[in-house]
Amino acid sequence: MKSIAILGGGLSGLTQAWKAQKSGKKVTIFEENSRLGGVIQSERTKEGFLLDYGPNSLSLRKQNLSEMLEQLDILDHAIDANVIAKKRFIVRAGKLVALPLNFPTFLSSRFLSPTGKLRILLEPFIRKSKSSSESVAQFIERRLGREVLDYAANPFLGGVFAARPETLSLPNAFPALAEMERQNGSIFRGFLASRKKFNRMEKTRLISFPNGMEELITRFEMKVQCSILRKHSAKEIESVHQNGWKIKCTSENGSQSILHFDELICTLPATQISSIKWTNVKNSKDLNVLSTAPHFPLSLVFLGFEREQIEHPLDGFGFLVPELENRKILGTLFSSTLFSNRAPEGKVLLTTFVGGERQPHLAEMNDGSLFQSVSDELSCLLGVKGKPIFQKIKRWPLSIPLPDSRMSERKDAARRLSSLNNGLSFSGSHLTGVSLPNCLEG
Ligand SMILES: Cc1cc2nc3c(=O)[nH]c(=O)nc-3n(C[C@H](O)[C@H](O)[C@H](O)COP(=O)(O)OP(=O)(O)OC[C@H]3O[C@@H](n4cnc5c(N)ncnc54)[C@H](O)[C@@H]3O)c2cc1C
Hints:
Blueprint: E1 3-7, H1 11-22, E2 26-30, E3 42-44, E4 50-52, E5 58-60, H2 63-71, E6 79-80, E7 89-92, E8 95-98, H3 103-108, H4 114-121, H5 136-144, H6 146-160, H7 170-173, H8 175-184, H9 187-200, E9 205-208, H10 214-223, E10 227-229, E11 232-239, E12 245-251, E13 256-261, E14 263-266, H11 270-273, E15 277-279, H12 285-290, E16 298-306, E17 318-320, E18 331-333, H13 335-338, E19 347-355, H14 360-363, H15 367-382, E20 390-396, H16 407-420, E21 424-426, H17 429-432, H18 436-441
Parallel strand pairs: 1-2, 1-14, 2-10, 7-17, 11-15, 14-21
Antiparallel strand pairs: 3-4, 5-9, 6-9, 7-8, 11-12, 12-13, 16-19, 16-20, 17-18, 18-19
Helix pairs in contact: 5-6, 8-9
Protein backbone atom coordinates (compact mmCIF):
# COMPACT_ATOMS: atom_id res chain seq x y z
CA MET A 1 0.00 0.00 0.00
CA LYS A 2 1.44 3.43 -0.98
CA SER A 3 1.93 5.92 1.83
CA ILE A 4 0.96 9.55 1.31
CA ALA A 5 1.55 12.65 3.44
CA ILE A 6 -0.91 15.54 3.32
CA LEU A 7 0.46 18.85 4.56
CA GLY A 8 -2.27 21.00 6.16
CA GLY A 9 -5.47 19.89 7.88
CA GLY A 10 -7.86 22.52 6.49
CA LEU A 11 -10.81 21.56 4.29
CA SER A 12 -8.47 21.14 1.27
CA GLY A 13 -6.22 18.76 3.24
CA LEU A 14 -9.15 16.70 4.52
CA THR A 15 -10.64 16.50 1.02
CA GLN A 16 -7.34 15.25 -0.41
CA ALA A 17 -7.00 12.80 2.50
CA TRP A 18 -10.45 11.37 1.81
CA LYS A 19 -9.73 10.99 -1.92
CA ALA A 20 -6.37 9.31 -1.23
CA GLN A 21 -7.98 6.97 1.30
CA LYS A 22 -10.64 6.00 -1.27
CA SER A 23 -7.90 5.15 -3.76
CA GLY A 24 -6.39 2.75 -1.23
CA LYS A 25 -3.46 4.80 0.09
CA LYS A 26 -2.19 4.97 3.66
CA VAL A 27 -2.73 8.62 4.63
CA THR A 28 -1.00 10.84 7.21
CA ILE A 29 -2.07 14.47 7.76
CA PHE A 30 0.43 17.00 9.18
CA GLU A 31 -1.31 19.91 10.91
CA GLU A 32 0.59 22.54 12.86
CA ASN A 33 -2.37 23.48 15.07
CA SER A 34 -4.01 21.44 17.82
CA ARG A 35 -7.24 21.41 15.79
CA LEU A 36 -8.13 20.64 12.18
CA GLY A 37 -10.12 22.96 9.91
CA GLY A 38 -7.72 25.84 9.19
CA VAL A 39 -9.84 28.97 8.71
CA ILE A 40 -13.06 27.03 9.47
CA GLN A 41 -13.51 27.81 13.16
CA SER A 42 -16.64 28.12 15.31
CA GLU A 43 -17.11 28.90 18.98
CA ARG A 44 -20.15 29.01 21.30
CA THR A 45 -19.42 31.82 23.77
CA LYS A 46 -20.40 31.68 27.45
CA GLU A 47 -23.04 34.35 26.68
CA GLY A 48 -24.67 31.86 24.28
CA PHE A 49 -23.67 33.37 20.89
CA LEU A 50 -22.38 31.02 18.19
CA LEU A 51 -19.54 32.67 16.26
CA ASP A 52 -18.12 31.52 12.93
CA TYR A 53 -14.66 33.06 12.68
CA GLY A 54 -14.17 31.90 9.08
CA PRO A 55 -16.85 30.80 6.60
CA ASN A 56 -20.45 31.17 7.77
CA SER A 57 -22.14 28.90 5.22
CA LEU A 58 -21.63 26.42 2.40
CA SER A 59 -23.48 26.96 -0.84
CA LEU A 60 -24.36 23.59 -2.38
CA ARG A 61 -25.06 24.08 -6.05
CA LYS A 62 -23.71 20.94 -7.60
CA GLN A 63 -25.19 17.49 -7.31
CA ASN A 64 -21.75 15.84 -7.05
CA LEU A 65 -20.91 17.85 -3.92
CA SER A 66 -24.19 16.90 -2.24
CA GLU A 67 -23.42 13.27 -3.07
CA MET A 68 -19.92 13.58 -1.64
CA LEU A 69 -21.26 15.04 1.63
CA GLU A 70 -23.90 12.31 1.75
CA GLN A 71 -21.21 9.64 1.42
CA LEU A 72 -19.40 11.29 4.31
CA ASP A 73 -22.67 11.23 6.37
CA ILE A 74 -22.38 15.01 6.69
CA LEU A 75 -25.51 16.19 4.89
CA ASP A 76 -27.91 14.56 7.39
CA HIS A 77 -26.57 16.87 10.09
CA ALA A 78 -26.72 20.08 8.03
CA ILE A 79 -29.22 22.88 8.65
CA ASP A 80 -30.62 25.12 5.91
CA ALA A 81 -30.49 28.89 5.95
CA ASN A 82 -33.69 30.68 6.91
CA VAL A 83 -35.76 31.30 3.73
CA ILE A 84 -35.84 34.99 4.58
CA ALA A 85 -32.06 35.05 4.02
CA LYS A 86 -32.75 35.07 0.26
CA LYS A 87 -33.34 38.78 0.76
CA ARG A 88 -30.07 40.74 0.61
CA PHE A 89 -29.40 44.44 0.92
CA ILE A 90 -26.88 46.93 -0.39
CA VAL A 91 -26.26 50.43 0.85
CA ARG A 92 -27.24 53.19 -1.55
CA ALA A 93 -27.20 56.87 -0.60
CA GLY A 94 -26.68 55.88 3.03
CA LYS A 95 -29.74 53.60 3.23
CA LEU A 96 -30.28 49.84 2.99
CA VAL A 97 -31.96 48.89 -0.31
CA ALA A 98 -33.23 45.33 -0.91
CA LEU A 99 -31.82 43.63 -4.00
CA PRO A 100 -34.49 42.52 -6.47
CA LEU A 101 -35.38 38.81 -6.41
CA ASN A 102 -37.31 38.75 -9.71
CA PHE A 103 -38.04 40.85 -12.79
CA PRO A 104 -41.03 42.85 -11.40
CA THR A 105 -39.07 43.82 -8.27
CA PHE A 106 -36.05 44.62 -10.48
CA LEU A 107 -38.19 47.15 -12.34
CA SER A 108 -39.42 48.81 -9.16
CA SER A 109 -36.18 48.53 -7.15
CA ARG A 110 -34.15 51.60 -6.15
CA PHE A 111 -30.98 49.54 -6.35
CA LEU A 112 -30.19 50.92 -9.84
CA SER A 113 -31.24 54.14 -11.56
CA PRO A 114 -33.56 53.86 -14.64
CA THR A 115 -30.49 54.49 -16.86
CA GLY A 116 -28.58 51.71 -15.09
CA LYS A 117 -31.50 49.31 -15.63
CA LEU A 118 -31.79 50.23 -19.32
CA ARG A 119 -28.04 49.67 -19.75
CA ILE A 120 -28.45 46.09 -18.50
CA LEU A 121 -30.99 45.45 -21.27
CA LEU A 122 -28.29 46.19 -23.87
CA GLU A 123 -26.19 43.24 -22.63
CA PRO A 124 -27.21 40.73 -25.35
CA PHE A 125 -26.11 43.23 -28.01
CA ILE A 126 -22.61 43.86 -26.62
CA ARG A 127 -19.84 42.21 -28.65
CA LYS A 128 -17.61 39.50 -27.22
CA SER A 129 -14.22 40.59 -25.93
CA LYS A 130 -11.14 39.46 -27.85
CA SER A 131 -9.12 39.50 -24.63
CA SER A 132 -8.95 36.35 -22.55
CA SER A 133 -7.45 38.14 -19.56
CA GLU A 134 -10.00 40.76 -18.57
CA SER A 135 -10.47 41.77 -14.95
CA VAL A 136 -13.92 41.24 -13.43
CA ALA A 137 -14.31 45.06 -13.43
CA GLN A 138 -13.56 45.35 -17.17
CA PHE A 139 -15.98 42.53 -18.00
CA ILE A 140 -18.87 43.84 -15.89
CA GLU A 141 -18.49 47.44 -17.03
CA ARG A 142 -18.26 46.41 -20.69
CA ARG A 143 -21.24 44.03 -20.61
CA LEU A 144 -23.55 45.55 -17.96
CA GLY A 145 -22.43 49.14 -17.44
CA ARG A 146 -20.69 51.24 -14.83
CA GLU A 147 -23.57 51.32 -12.36
CA VAL A 148 -23.75 47.52 -12.10
CA LEU A 149 -20.00 47.52 -11.51
CA ASP A 150 -20.27 50.12 -8.75
CA TYR A 151 -23.47 48.95 -7.05
CA ALA A 152 -23.49 45.18 -7.62
CA ALA A 153 -20.06 43.76 -8.52
CA ASN A 154 -18.05 46.00 -6.23
CA PRO A 155 -20.01 45.27 -3.02
CA PHE A 156 -20.49 41.59 -3.92
CA LEU A 157 -16.76 41.02 -4.43
CA GLY A 158 -16.01 43.02 -1.29
CA GLY A 159 -18.24 40.50 0.52
CA VAL A 160 -16.97 37.30 -1.08
CA PHE A 161 -13.23 37.98 -1.57
CA ALA A 162 -12.75 41.19 0.46
CA ALA A 163 -11.29 42.44 -2.83
CA ARG A 164 -11.84 44.96 -5.62
CA PRO A 165 -13.24 43.81 -8.99
CA GLU A 166 -10.26 45.53 -10.67
CA THR A 167 -7.84 43.02 -9.02
CA LEU A 168 -9.77 39.85 -9.77
CA SER A 169 -9.25 38.09 -13.06
CA LEU A 170 -12.49 37.04 -14.79
CA PRO A 171 -11.29 33.62 -16.03
CA ASN A 172 -9.74 32.82 -12.65
CA ALA A 173 -12.46 34.16 -10.33
CA PHE A 174 -15.55 33.37 -12.45
CA PRO A 175 -14.58 30.87 -15.16
CA ALA A 176 -18.25 30.01 -15.80
CA LEU A 177 -19.09 33.63 -16.73
CA ALA A 178 -16.08 33.86 -19.05
CA GLU A 179 -17.17 30.59 -20.68
CA MET A 180 -20.76 31.81 -21.07
CA GLU A 181 -19.60 34.81 -23.05
CA ARG A 182 -17.21 32.70 -25.12
CA GLN A 183 -19.87 30.11 -26.02
CA ASN A 184 -23.05 32.20 -26.21
CA GLY A 185 -21.76 35.71 -26.88
CA SER A 186 -23.76 37.07 -23.94
CA ILE A 187 -24.45 36.37 -20.27
CA PHE A 188 -28.23 36.53 -20.79
CA ARG A 189 -28.12 34.11 -23.71
CA GLY A 190 -25.79 31.89 -21.68
CA PHE A 191 -28.30 31.78 -18.78
CA LEU A 192 -31.16 31.03 -21.16
CA ALA A 193 -29.16 28.24 -22.81
CA SER A 194 -28.38 26.63 -19.47
CA ARG A 195 -31.86 27.17 -18.01
CA LYS A 196 -33.04 23.73 -18.98
CA LYS A 197 -29.98 22.20 -17.40
CA PHE A 198 -30.45 24.27 -14.21
CA ASN A 199 -34.11 23.23 -14.03
CA ARG A 200 -33.07 19.61 -13.93
CA MET A 201 -30.68 20.28 -11.07
CA GLU A 202 -31.65 20.41 -7.43
CA LYS A 203 -32.11 23.87 -6.00
CA THR A 204 -29.08 25.55 -4.45
CA ARG A 205 -28.92 24.89 -0.71
CA LEU A 206 -27.18 27.26 1.68
CA ILE A 207 -26.20 25.16 4.67
CA SER A 208 -24.42 25.23 7.99
CA PHE A 209 -24.57 23.03 11.11
CA PRO A 210 -26.15 23.28 14.57
CA ASN A 211 -22.69 23.91 16.08
CA GLY A 212 -21.46 26.17 13.29
CA MET A 213 -19.32 25.48 10.23
CA GLU A 214 -16.61 23.72 12.26
CA GLU A 215 -18.98 20.75 12.51
CA LEU A 216 -18.24 20.17 8.79
CA ILE A 217 -14.67 19.44 9.88
CA THR A 218 -15.47 17.30 12.94
CA ARG A 219 -17.81 15.16 10.85
CA PHE A 220 -15.28 14.91 8.00
CA GLU A 221 -12.65 13.81 10.53
CA MET A 222 -14.90 11.00 11.79
CA LYS A 223 -14.99 9.52 8.28
CA VAL A 224 -11.42 9.98 7.11
CA GLN A 225 -9.51 7.01 8.41
CA CYS A 226 -5.96 8.23 8.56
CA SER A 227 -3.23 9.13 10.94
CA ILE A 228 -3.50 12.79 12.02
CA LEU A 229 -0.37 14.43 13.42
CA ARG A 230 -1.67 17.54 15.21
CA LYS A 231 0.77 20.18 16.45
CA HIS A 232 3.20 18.94 13.80
CA SER A 233 4.57 21.75 11.68
CA ALA A 234 6.30 20.73 8.43
CA LYS A 235 9.68 22.51 8.23
CA GLU A 236 11.79 20.73 5.63
CA ILE A 237 10.89 18.55 2.66
CA GLU A 238 13.35 16.50 0.67
CA SER A 239 12.84 14.50 -2.50
CA VAL A 240 14.67 11.19 -2.05
CA HIS A 241 16.12 10.67 -5.56
CA GLN A 242 12.63 10.60 -7.12
CA ASN A 243 11.80 7.75 -4.80
CA GLY A 244 9.62 9.23 -2.10
CA TRP A 245 9.62 12.21 0.23
CA LYS A 246 11.24 12.93 3.59
CA ILE A 247 9.38 15.35 5.84
CA LYS A 248 11.11 16.97 8.77
CA CYS A 249 8.62 18.39 11.24
CA THR A 250 8.63 19.91 14.69
CA SER A 251 6.04 19.15 17.34
CA GLU A 252 4.77 21.49 20.07
CA ASN A 253 7.52 20.67 22.57
CA GLY A 254 10.16 21.46 19.93
CA SER A 255 11.12 17.83 19.26
CA GLN A 256 11.93 17.05 15.63
CA SER A 257 11.12 13.96 13.62
CA ILE A 258 11.74 12.82 10.05
CA LEU A 259 9.15 10.66 8.32
CA HIS A 260 9.27 9.04 4.90
CA PHE A 261 6.37 8.75 2.41
CA ASP A 262 5.91 7.57 -1.18
CA GLU A 263 3.83 10.63 -2.09
CA LEU A 264 3.14 14.14 -0.83
CA ILE A 265 0.26 16.59 -1.31
CA CYS A 266 0.89 20.11 -0.07
CA THR A 267 -2.33 22.00 0.83
CA LEU A 268 -0.61 24.68 2.91
CA PRO A 269 -1.65 28.31 2.45
CA ALA A 270 0.32 30.03 -0.34
CA THR A 271 2.01 32.23 2.25
CA GLN A 272 3.51 29.18 4.02
CA ILE A 273 5.01 27.36 1.04
CA SER A 274 8.13 29.52 0.86
CA SER A 275 8.77 29.23 4.61
CA ILE A 276 9.55 25.52 4.12
CA LYS A 277 13.05 24.38 3.16
CA TRP A 278 12.66 22.28 -0.01
CA THR A 279 15.60 20.09 -1.09
CA ASN A 280 16.22 18.24 -4.39
CA VAL A 281 13.00 19.55 -5.95
CA LYS A 282 13.21 19.91 -9.72
CA ASN A 283 12.29 23.40 -10.99
CA SER A 284 12.28 24.66 -7.41
CA LYS A 285 11.92 28.28 -8.61
CA ASP A 286 8.27 27.42 -9.30
CA LEU A 287 7.80 27.12 -5.51
CA ASN A 288 8.28 30.90 -5.29
CA VAL A 289 5.63 31.43 -7.98
CA LEU A 290 3.12 29.54 -5.81
CA SER A 291 3.61 32.06 -3.01
CA THR A 292 2.59 35.09 -5.10
CA ALA A 293 -1.15 35.06 -4.36
CA PRO A 294 -2.12 38.49 -2.95
CA HIS A 295 -3.69 38.49 0.54
CA PHE A 296 -5.13 41.41 2.56
CA PRO A 297 -5.98 41.75 6.25
CA LEU A 298 -9.61 41.34 7.26
CA SER A 299 -11.23 41.74 10.69
CA LEU A 300 -14.58 40.28 11.71
CA VAL A 301 -16.42 42.20 14.42
CA PHE A 302 -19.13 40.25 16.25
CA LEU A 303 -21.72 42.29 18.15
CA GLY A 304 -24.67 40.94 20.16
CA PHE A 305 -27.70 43.07 21.01
CA GLU A 306 -31.13 42.78 22.59
CA ARG A 307 -33.57 42.56 19.66
CA GLU A 308 -35.27 45.80 20.61
CA GLN A 309 -31.99 47.75 20.42
CA ILE A 310 -32.15 47.57 16.59
CA GLU A 311 -34.72 49.43 14.49
CA HIS A 312 -34.13 47.49 11.26
CA PRO A 313 -36.15 44.24 11.04
CA LEU A 314 -32.96 42.29 10.10
CA ASP A 315 -35.12 40.42 7.59
CA GLY A 316 -32.42 39.04 5.32
CA PHE A 317 -28.90 37.68 4.85
CA GLY A 318 -27.28 41.03 5.60
CA PHE A 319 -26.01 44.02 3.64
CA LEU A 320 -22.98 44.89 1.53
CA VAL A 321 -21.42 48.30 1.05
CA PRO A 322 -20.35 49.66 -2.36
CA GLU A 323 -16.98 51.44 -2.21
CA LEU A 324 -18.58 54.65 -3.57
CA GLU A 325 -20.64 54.89 -0.39
CA ASN A 326 -17.44 55.74 1.47
CA ARG A 327 -18.10 53.82 4.67
CA LYS A 328 -15.74 52.08 7.07
CA ILE A 329 -17.14 48.55 6.72
CA LEU A 330 -17.47 46.06 3.85
CA GLY A 331 -20.78 44.68 5.04
CA THR A 332 -22.67 42.99 7.87
CA LEU A 333 -24.25 39.56 8.15
CA PHE A 334 -27.48 39.22 10.09
CA SER A 335 -26.03 36.01 11.56
CA SER A 336 -28.93 35.20 13.90
CA THR A 337 -31.42 35.59 11.02
CA LEU A 338 -29.31 33.50 8.63
CA PHE A 339 -29.28 30.34 10.78
CA SER A 340 -31.23 29.45 13.91
CA ASN A 341 -29.60 29.13 17.32
CA ARG A 342 -26.84 31.70 16.71
CA ALA A 343 -28.00 33.97 19.56
CA PRO A 344 -29.94 33.41 22.81
CA GLU A 345 -33.71 33.98 22.76
CA GLY A 346 -34.63 37.65 22.26
CA LYS A 347 -31.09 38.62 21.25
CA VAL A 348 -29.42 39.08 17.85
CA LEU A 349 -25.92 38.57 16.47
CA LEU A 350 -24.37 40.77 13.76
CA THR A 351 -21.05 39.95 12.05
CA THR A 352 -19.34 42.90 10.36
CA PHE A 353 -16.41 42.65 7.93
CA VAL A 354 -13.75 45.39 7.97
CA GLY A 355 -10.67 45.97 5.80
CA GLY A 356 -9.77 43.71 2.88
CA GLU A 357 -8.13 45.16 -0.21
CA ARG A 358 -10.33 48.25 -0.06
CA GLN A 359 -9.29 49.48 3.39
CA PRO A 360 -6.54 47.21 4.81
CA HIS A 361 -5.55 49.85 7.41
CA LEU A 362 -9.04 49.72 8.98
CA ALA A 363 -8.68 45.97 9.67
CA GLU A 364 -5.55 46.80 11.66
CA MET A 365 -7.10 49.41 13.98
CA ASN A 366 -6.83 48.65 17.69
CA ASP A 367 -9.77 46.89 19.35
CA GLY A 368 -11.31 50.03 20.87
CA SER A 369 -11.25 52.01 17.62
CA LEU A 370 -12.54 49.04 15.61
CA PHE A 371 -15.54 48.47 17.94
CA GLN A 372 -16.31 52.20 17.93
CA SER A 373 -16.06 52.53 14.16
CA VAL A 374 -18.33 49.51 13.53
CA SER A 375 -20.84 50.63 16.18
CA ASP A 376 -21.02 54.10 14.58
CA GLU A 377 -21.67 52.59 11.14
CA LEU A 378 -24.34 50.20 12.44
CA SER A 379 -26.16 52.88 14.39
CA CYS A 380 -26.31 54.93 11.20
CA LEU A 381 -27.32 52.11 8.84
CA LEU A 382 -29.46 49.83 11.07
CA GLY A 383 -30.62 52.23 13.76
CA VAL A 384 -28.74 50.42 16.52
CA LYS A 385 -29.27 52.04 19.93
CA GLY A 386 -27.06 51.70 23.00
CA LYS A 387 -24.08 49.49 23.72
CA PRO A 388 -23.77 45.86 22.58
CA ILE A 389 -24.32 43.19 25.22
CA PHE A 390 -21.55 41.12 23.61
CA GLN A 391 -18.55 41.99 21.43
CA LYS A 392 -15.58 40.15 19.99
CA ILE A 393 -13.04 40.62 17.16
CA LYS A 394 -11.44 37.94 14.99
CA ARG A 395 -8.45 39.15 12.97
CA TRP A 396 -7.17 37.49 9.79
CA PRO A 397 -3.85 39.23 8.93
CA LEU A 398 -3.64 37.33 5.60
CA SER A 399 -7.23 36.47 4.86
CA ILE A 400 -8.10 35.24 1.36
CA PRO A 401 -5.76 34.32 -1.54
CA LEU A 402 -7.10 36.39 -4.42
CA PRO A 403 -7.67 34.88 -7.89
CA ASP A 404 -5.80 37.69 -9.66
CA SER A 405 -4.32 37.64 -13.18
CA ARG A 406 -1.30 35.61 -11.95
CA MET A 407 -3.40 32.69 -10.71
CA SER A 408 -2.96 30.90 -14.05
CA GLU A 409 0.84 31.19 -13.63
CA ARG A 410 0.52 29.66 -10.16
CA LYS A 411 -1.58 26.78 -11.50
CA ASP A 412 0.96 26.20 -14.30
CA ALA A 413 3.80 26.23 -11.73
CA ALA A 414 1.95 23.64 -9.60
CA ARG A 415 1.39 21.44 -12.69
CA ARG A 416 5.07 21.69 -13.70
CA LEU A 417 6.24 20.79 -10.20
CA SER A 418 3.94 17.76 -10.17
CA SER A 419 4.99 16.52 -13.58
CA LEU A 420 8.73 16.92 -12.89
CA ASN A 421 8.74 15.57 -9.34
CA ASN A 422 7.40 12.08 -8.93
CA GLY A 423 4.69 11.83 -6.23
CA LEU A 424 4.43 15.57 -5.50
CA SER A 425 1.25 17.62 -5.92
CA PHE A 426 -0.35 20.81 -4.63
CA SER A 427 -3.85 21.84 -3.67
CA GLY A 428 -5.40 24.49 -1.37
CA SER A 429 -7.64 27.48 -1.86
CA HIS A 430 -4.92 29.53 -3.61
CA LEU A 431 -5.05 26.98 -6.48
CA THR A 432 -8.58 25.54 -6.42
CA GLY A 433 -10.43 28.82 -5.77
CA VAL A 434 -11.44 30.05 -2.34
CA SER A 435 -15.04 28.91 -1.90
CA LEU A 436 -15.69 25.81 0.19
CA PRO A 437 -17.18 24.01 -2.88
CA ASN A 438 -13.92 24.80 -4.75
CA CYS A 439 -11.89 23.26 -1.89
CA LEU A 440 -14.19 20.20 -1.79
CA GLU A 441 -13.80 19.69 -5.53
CA GLY A 442 -10.01 19.90 -5.01
C1 LIG B 1 -13.02 35.20 7.10
C2 LIG B 1 -13.31 34.21 5.99
C3 LIG B 1 -14.64 33.97 5.64
C4 LIG B 1 -14.93 33.04 4.63
N1 LIG B 1 -16.24 32.80 4.32
C5 LIG B 1 -16.54 31.84 3.41
C6 LIG B 1 -17.91 31.46 3.18
O1 LIG B 1 -18.84 31.96 3.86
N2 LIG B 1 -18.16 30.50 2.25
C7 LIG B 1 -17.15 29.90 1.54
O2 LIG B 1 -17.44 29.06 0.67
N3 LIG B 1 -15.85 30.19 1.76
C8 LIG B 1 -15.52 31.15 2.68
N4 LIG B 1 -14.20 31.43 2.95
C9 LIG B 1 -13.14 30.71 2.21
C10 LIG B 1 -12.85 29.31 2.77
O3 LIG B 1 -13.15 29.25 4.14
C11 LIG B 1 -11.36 28.96 2.58
O4 LIG B 1 -10.99 29.20 1.23
C12 LIG B 1 -11.07 27.49 2.89
O5 LIG B 1 -11.58 27.13 4.17
C13 LIG B 1 -9.54 27.27 2.81
O6 LIG B 1 -9.23 25.94 3.16
P1 LIG B 1 -7.75 25.37 2.93
O7 LIG B 1 -7.71 24.01 3.52
O8 LIG B 1 -7.35 25.53 1.51
O9 LIG B 1 -6.80 26.36 3.76
P2 LIG B 1 -6.69 26.59 5.33
O10 LIG B 1 -8.01 26.55 5.96
O11 LIG B 1 -5.86 27.83 5.49
O12 LIG B 1 -5.85 25.31 5.85
C14 LIG B 1 -4.46 25.21 5.78
C15 LIG B 1 -3.97 24.42 7.00
O13 LIG B 1 -2.53 24.28 6.92
C16 LIG B 1 -2.02 24.37 8.24
N5 LIG B 1 -0.59 24.69 8.17
C17 LIG B 1 0.00 25.87 7.81
N6 LIG B 1 1.33 25.74 7.81
C18 LIG B 1 1.61 24.46 8.18
C19 LIG B 1 2.83 23.72 8.33
N7 LIG B 1 4.03 24.26 8.09
N8 LIG B 1 2.74 22.40 8.69
C20 LIG B 1 1.53 21.82 8.91
N9 LIG B 1 0.34 22.49 8.79
C21 LIG B 1 0.40 23.78 8.41
C22 LIG B 1 -2.87 25.48 8.87
O14 LIG B 1 -2.79 25.44 10.28
C23 LIG B 1 -4.25 25.13 8.33
O15 LIG B 1 -4.96 24.24 9.18
C24 LIG B 1 -13.87 32.36 3.96
C25 LIG B 1 -12.54 32.61 4.31
C26 LIG B 1 -12.25 33.52 5.32
C27 LIG B 1 -10.81 33.77 5.72
